[in-house]
Amino acid sequence: MTAYNYQNEAEELIEDQDETVHYMQDESWSVKDLSGAVWADGMIHEKEVKISSIEAIADNNIAALEAKIEKLKVWKENSTRNDVNGITFFKTHLHLWHEKLVRSEKEENKELVAKGKKEKKLSQTIKLPYRNLTCRTQQPEITKDEEQLVQWVNTNYSEDIPVSDLEDLIDNIKASDKSGIKLSDLFTLYGEYESKFIKRDIKVAWGELKKNLFISEDKNGKVVYKDDQEREVTAIQLSKQGEKYDWKITE
Asked: What superkingdom does the record give (predicted)?
């Protein structure tokens, strides 16, 4: 792959400052008529051509450099493969020897204990010239069934909701002439007695809720979300956006 001398070519493309800088610094300048619009369109086209040229130069050189990097990676892997395999081989046998040594020491300690003698210290660390071999007791691997764990914690750590609290809730509902108990009231009451070890992550199914919402305007002209019963969703803030001006390049 041929790489261009991107430094020289890129410098030639960008070294000449065009008059755009002058216009950008002149706050009084603007497009005032069709002639000015045609001129501005031509300026945009020239800059698009320049950008394409610079990107082409850069992409060609990046591709060449990436090819070199990939070649170096392959060379590094091939050149170190035998040594890496050798390290793995010797490391495996060092660990096997260490494991065998500790196992034999444990058997020896069993015999010493059986004879009423003191156990010897295990060779959990063996110092070698370039590294230390170590043997550490690992913590047991934990596999949780989250659903069963939640049920177990709730069964063992949650308190019973007093019947009097439920009766008070029902009495309050009756006194307010409501036809039923809201789930939010039950969740509040439930949360008071639920185990502190349980954390509930309650999320709104936004995709489903959004299907029941529409954009409207309130009496002040503010855009808001409302549901199918005309209730405003006060937890959502909407901001009006102005028109977006863009262009489509013609062939």
From this structure: Bacteria
Quick one: tokens of 157?
């750590």
- pLDDT tens track for 185-208: 777 777 777 777 777 776 778 888
In this structure, is residue 32 part of a structural domain?
yes
**Beta-ladder partners of 215:** 225
Is the full-model pTM beyond 0.85?
Answer: no
| CA atoms of 78 and 71, how far apart (whole Å) | 11
Q: DSSP code of 214?
A: E
- Shared domain check, 209 and 193: no
Alpha helices in 115-197 (DSSP H): 146-157, 163-175, 183-193
What H or E segment, with its residue span, contains residue 133?
strand 132-134
Q: In angstroms, rounded to a whole number, what is the distance separating the alpha carbons of residues 42 and 16? A: 18
Based on the fold, state whether residues 18 and 100 are members of the same structural domain: yes
